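Researcher: Batch entry, complex prediction.
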Amino acid sequence: MNFSALIIDITLWGSVAVLGFMAWQRGRVVLVSSVREGSMDFINIMPRIALGVIGSGYIAAVIPPEVITGWLGPDSGWLGVLTAVIAGAATPGGPVVGFSIGAVAMKVGGGPPQVVAYVVAWALFAFQRMILWEIPFMPARFVWFRAAVSLPFPFLAAAIAMAIGKP
Amino acid sequence: MKDPAPADDGETRPKRARKPVGWSMIFIGVLVAVCVALVWRRDGIDGVLNILTHDLFLFGEILPRVLAGCLLGAFIAEILPHEKVSRALGPTSGLKGLLIGTAFGAILPGGPFTAYPVAAALLTVGADFGATIAMVVSWTLIGYGRAVAWELPILGVDFTLWRIVISLPIPVLAGALGRFVYVRVYPKGEPS
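Model: Structure tokens for the complex:
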């Protein structure tokens, strides 16, 4: 386990301890019932997370990385923005993969607005995060609703980047 | 949505609805099955088993964090006063509610295993879709954790700072759009 994972786990369980203490201050019954509630959620969510983790490994395996970088080519117009958005949503793996693909695209001549659109689309729609985390934890209606109303924003971000000429 | 755990009677608090197996999970299941078949055709049974063992390890690694996230969500649902949450983050909270959601998403520590359980808990204690969308979008777009740990070193300071500046209005706009669409799609409130 590396250092940053350790920090994450310490903050995570630290917050659990602090909130658990606050619940306990309201009475033992409150603490017991919320621990039971949380454990029930955990048992309920576990199969979904299992399907998400194992499944996204297989989905990632059939998406060749060249396809993603190909979509993020040097096309500098709105078509380039559109393919960047699709590439962002289809990028498998965690933040290292996503940002590294963005960095490679910059180096091979991808326009900054397209890379901005890619990073924003990846943050909003990366399929692995949605399958693995958002859908298991949130009501399905919310997830689809959230994704639908987020659709315009990678394009807006690219438009702003074009307008201000940054980064 | 049904609640299969009617154990505590006399509870006045709204119980958290357990998620039934919905179309989303069926869709993902089918997609995964297709991908497993593709991997099997390409790499044989060894390829399938390799990915399986790797992912099972990953699953074991994140399980404790999922448990912590579930406990966090349950504590928050229990501790936060419902009237105050629905005033601050409910459907009538206006721009202020969207800004609170955005600020909360931006400072929330941890990863997806904290953000989504906390967001789900906020929904159950009275936040509306708009404020929750602002929170989730803010967490993914301007949350400092990922930007500092990954984006800065890989994409550089200049790119990262401008990308965040450009992203700043998006959570509020997404939340506002969410509210705008919500009252038109569900004029009588969310169906259950």
